[in-house]
Amino acid sequence: MRALIRLVVLCGCLLSVPALDVVPEALQAKLPDEAKEAVDKLQKETDAAVREAQDDIADERADLIKDLEKEQERAQRRGGLEAATAIAAHLAQLRLEGGGGSTDLLAPDAPPVEAPVLVAGELPPLPSSSARKAAGYVKAQQKAASNAARDIYQGRDKAVRDLERQVASLTRAGDLAEAQAVQAVGEHLVELVLPADFLGQMIMMPGAGAVVQGNVALAERGATVEAQGTGPSMIDGVSVGYTGSTGFAQGSWPCAFTVTLDKVYAIRQIRMLLWDGNQRHYRYKMEVSPDGEHWAMLADRSEGEWRSWQTLDLAQSAPVKQIRVTGLFNSDNGGFHIVELEAYCVPPKQAVAPKYASTPP
Description:
Elements: H1 2-12, H2 25-28, H3 33-77, H4 81-97, H5 128-172, H6 176-190, H7 196-204, E1 224-227, E2 229-230, E3 249-252, E4 255-274, E5 282-289, E6 296-306, E7 309-330, E8 335-344
Antiparallel strand pairs: 1-4, 2-3, 3-8, 4-7, 4-8, 5-6, 5-7
Helix pairs in contact: 3-4, 3-5, 5-6, 5-7
């Protein structure tokens, strides 16, 4: 988890992707100019809403950091090392949320302390006066996310009405193919759902990457795969109908499969279907990277018995451009077989059910 937070910080100043892609590029390809203008307008309004929220939060964060730094200094002068350490942990987290800056836990001349774990829910409690200020910051976060969601949904509703009008006009003119393309975009927008935690994530971690609906690890979405063997089948979007010889990517273990997405996304969940024609088990490792240089271990499953669907949830969205699976073992033979790999910014509501259960070590 801490490795994933570091990835956000490493890339926070480098990423320039939009916070939310309201319409995938594949759906826009066949749109007539008027519809493209409507989509472009909605995208600009969406980006503006998120930027405004980010700016509001940045101001609140800066004020809170100043207040906590003063509280920290007072605690250090009084010899309250426990309080100073707790405040330092929250200061480090706030600086991480800002996408950069110093993450020193204490001033250079402060007593040495053990670095706390920077994971939500695991930070040490703040002293009461600092806690009240932090509570105000949380309320500001919630207000900013609520305002952004309101503005995005209002813009979405206007765009949908505009597209519906265009569909009717194109249908009357007999341009059925264009009408169908515009209708598909309208239907996509109607189904656009922004869970509150994801909207908050975009605002709090602006460098985390683009957020879109659906599986982004697809060849039709621009994803590619490099494998020590065969790879394309694992990003073709087909997770049924595979046989003992077709419908999966394979390599001789140990082997690596690296999926490169078309852009950096804020990924929250990765799913992988291991070949499950029988009860064989596999072992593997999975890593993610925002740039192909800095890697974080998402799952080390080099022990245990892992079968069928594997669902890996990230504790918070992380910027991901590449996903690397290292196949380590197959209890049946020397091959490692992946039927499908999927990556989601917004995890589907419907979970996948493994054909055979895995057995952790």
